[in-house]
Amino acid sequence: MMLVRPPRFLSPSPAPGPREPRLRRPVDASRIFSSPRPPGRRPRPRPRAASPSTDLRRLTARIVELTRRRQLAQIMEEVEAARRRVRAGGVPNTIVMNAVLEAFVRCGDVDHALLLFKEMRGPRGCGVDGVSYGILLKGLGIARRIDEAFEILESIEKDSSIGSPRLSPHLICGFLNALIEAGDMRRANALVARFRKVLYEGHSVLLYNLLMKGYIKSNFPLGALTVKDEILRQGLKPDRLTYNTIISACVKSSEIDKAIQFLEDMKEEAKRESNPELLPDAVTYTTLLKGLGNSRDLYSVLKIVVEMKSSLLSIDRTAYTAMIDALLACGSIDGALCIFGDIIKQAGSNKDLRPKPHLYLSIMRAFATRGDVDMVMRLNKRMWPDSVGSISPAAKEEACELLMEAAINNNQIDLARGLLRRIVNEKKCFSWTSRVGLVAIKVESLSGFTNSLLRPHVFPQIILNDPVEKYMVPFQESQPLPADIILRKVMMRFLKDRAVPLVDDWGGCVGIVHRDDCTKLDAPLLSMSRGPPLCVPTSTTVEHVIDLLLREKSEMVIVVKSGNMYEGSYASSSRPLGIFSLAILWSFTGDYSSDIHDAGSLVTALEQDTGTCNCG
């Protein structure tokens, strides 16, 4: 079928007549020589300047981000740059300056916060509002400057404050929360009693939740139960936070039965009022699992785990970690592995469920106690690609220590010795009471004294029960220096000796100068000493002198006659007999090397000697 376009009917044109001359537009000479615009290209629009309100919003967001990083210097630089950009010498508005005030409070610099607050309410400032007063009150509470905070509250109550702020629960709750976080329930209760009428406006349970948290912080958790009774007397209804706080208080006071009862009350009230906001959440179950794990109640732990997995509750990584920790505390390693496998399976589709390194370490501790070297090695290997977040150096060290513990518990002495050798080479020092120290003692005891990896220093010429007088150096041979001499004149002496005794004009020892304390070239030596010298009588045993040097972290002691000791102090009028130092002790070791003068290495060696002797 063919469509035919209908004919166009044109109106008859008028008869041609004389044309009127067309008025031409005068031609601009600059357009004659300018190149014509290419066809199809439009002029580029000029960028519009951002409005001042948009700039201030961006600045506020930037200040909040820098506050999280605690970069106060960068915040002040950007605020000063914003002040220079504002025309006619203006200042940023109150919202921006409140963000700066919050940054000072978050970083603990309350003095600068007070100065900024005075500048804001000054004649050339941007002004203050209720938010400004709330932030300042919170900062004063954190800094424990309670009197200044109460003065500000009284001025607000009398309407004598600049900005005309109004007393409100939100204004006071920041200060109250700071007192509660510090555990100062006496002042917190005084604040509630003083402004009870204001705090009870609106009949909210927020105040009571804060008070319950305060009782938990002040090591009186059962006091939170009395606050719940007060809530019921006031005709208020507890919310989910109220129940979570009460359950936390019961767990902290080891009242697990009461915590389970409050959990049941929570579910019954939610069902009775058809209020899903009262149902237990992940925080409720996580808190309860912690208490059940501490009480080693495996049956209740399994019951809570089944209830969590069968409900519509969204289980996050923290809740899964609490399940595993509770099962491990109850000794159920198989149950913990089942939950751990569930986490790994779901982490493939949900990256937020990937476990953190400390969860791997918790499971590795359980297998290291069993002596399961294979499982500890597998978990250590999978911790690197499968965990989320950074692995701290302490976590890396603990993983290696757990592997050594598993090897020693499985009687694999050679593997444990190799791991201990690597730990000794990498770590500067470790405590004998730590995990690696206890395992090292086991390895050393099984290896024998001749195969020791810690290379203990032997004192073949010293008997620890001998008096120190037998091994001391006479005082004059130590070449003491005058106490008032300038360091610049004798600085070469400290390249040879790490500690030098000082004498006064009468020949009495008045101090000991250590090489590490020589920091002022033009100062007298006495000003750089560590106070009166350490003195011991001639009858003191060498063992006690070594303990004194290690405990006081000193290089030298002064030996005096027994009659010159008055309640442990040294009389400068009496003349010292000799000195005993770490350098002298080091010269009596069996593997003495003259090029070793480091006191830090010597102290570590002596601690190792003491640990070896205590190990038997």
Automatic annotation (TrEMBL):
PPR repeat feature ranges: 93-123, 204-238, 239-273
Pfam families: PPR_2 (PF13041)
SUPFAM superfamilies: CBS-domain pair (SSF54631)
Sequence ranges of Basic and acidic residues compositional bias: 19-28
Domain CBS residue range list: 528-596
Keyword match Transit peptide: yes
Source organism superkingdom: Eukaryota
Residues covered by region (Disordered): 1-55
Classification via InterPro entries: At5g10690-like (IPR044781), CBS_dom (IPR000644), CBS_dom_sf (IPR046342), PPR_rpt (IPR002885), TPR-like_helical_dom_sf (IPR011990)
Repeat listed as a keyword: yes
Keyword line: CBS domain, Repeat, Transit peptide
Protein name (database record): CBS domain-containing protein
Protein's organism: Panicum virgatum
Source lineage: Eukaryota, Viridiplantae, Streptophyta, Embryophyta, Tracheophyta
